Amino acid sequence: MMDIATPSRTKEIIKKHGFSFKKSLGQNFLVDMNIMRRIVQSAELDDKTGALEIGPGIGALTEQLAREAGKVTAVEIDQRLIPILGEVMEPYANVSVVNNDVLKVNLSALFEEQFSGMEKVSVVANLPYYVTTPIMMKLLEERLPLKNIVVMIQKEVAERMAASPGSKDYGSLTVAVQYYSEPEIVCTVPHTVFIPQPNVESAVIRLKVRENPPVQVNDEKLFFDVVQASFAQRRKTLWNNLKARYGAEAGIEGLQGALETTGIDPKRRGETLSLEEFARLSDAIGSLIK
Ligand code: SAM
């Protein structure tokens, strides 16, 4: 059978089922087998590995995953796609489709139900761009037993996830993603390989999920709060941002003293701090406001 990820087969399936694209659901289907192969290879699948796909569409990626992974579970929000997926996935006994909004799914329960026989699980998806960040944060924060997350996302967002301190792309998303994983951009992807074409460029990014965070902090919630506060106004110094957020609670002098103990120059901008420096800073602030 011809691959779905080609313009002719995709158009044929869409026509047969009278399917119309919903822009509001981020429906841009990949029709390029070279990019498809890059995605699947980066996920390092085998028959002991499960693949969770988010947003299978008409199954272009799903069928490739079914050939490489032990088990594939695909969560699709659009109920109009469920009968189409039922038909195209008929030859693959190792594929399950769940009709739900991935943001509403209890993923640990889903993992137990779907991947009990698997040694490990990776997420592989061409994500709907309007919900990239909430989906990624859900996958990372729920501390699921994941190996890799290989996703096609908007190029700018991929660059923010993989950024280094001091660069314009470095921000709270970078710190959050790098706290839980090691990101690596696999390739950038032109908008011409989708039907319909999105208005933005895309990139495939692979996140190797960490077993342990790269820095130790006393209070994880406070760590992320300090990160948010430090980037609240990007043009302001670290000191001005911290003062605005913690000044009243911690007292100006206390805050000054805490910052001094970390050895971090208060005139720096949040975007220059490494994860290790944010960790030191949040522990120092934590000792003041507890
Ligand atoms: N996997 C297909 C491909 O590569 O051609 C389709 C990818 S398309 C960019 C995104 C898919 O995600 C669509 O099928 C859309 O209906 C689905 N989707 C959008 N929001 C979703 C959500 N919250 N939960 C699950 N699926 C969603």
Give the SSE string: HEHEHEHEHEHEHHEEEHHHH
Instruction: Please mark out the parts with pLDDT under 50 across 5 or more consecutive residues, or reply none.
Output: none
Spatial arrangement of strands, main beta sheet: 4-3-2-5-6-9-7
Shape: elongated
Largest sheet features: 7 strands, mixed
Radius of gyration using CA atoms only: 22 Å
Strand content: 15-25%
Q: Would you report the number of β strands?
A: 9
Give the overall pLDDT as a whole number.
97
Structural class estimated from helices and strands: alpha/beta
Between the first and last Cα atoms, what is the distance in angstroms? Answer: 63 Å
Which percent bin holds the helix content? 40-55%
Which hetero ligands occur in this complex? Answer: S-adenosylmethionine
Number of helices: 12
Keywords: Cytoplasm, Methyltransferase, RNA-binding, rRNA processing, S-adenosyl-L-methionine, Transferase
GO molecular function, one term: RNA binding
GO cellular component, one term: cytosol
Catalytic activity: adenosine(1518)/adenosine(1519) in 16S rRNA + 4 S-adenosyl-L-methionine = N(6)-dimethyladenosine(1518)/N(6)-dimethyladenosine(1519) in 16S rRNA + 4 S-adenosyl-L-homocysteine + 4 H(+)
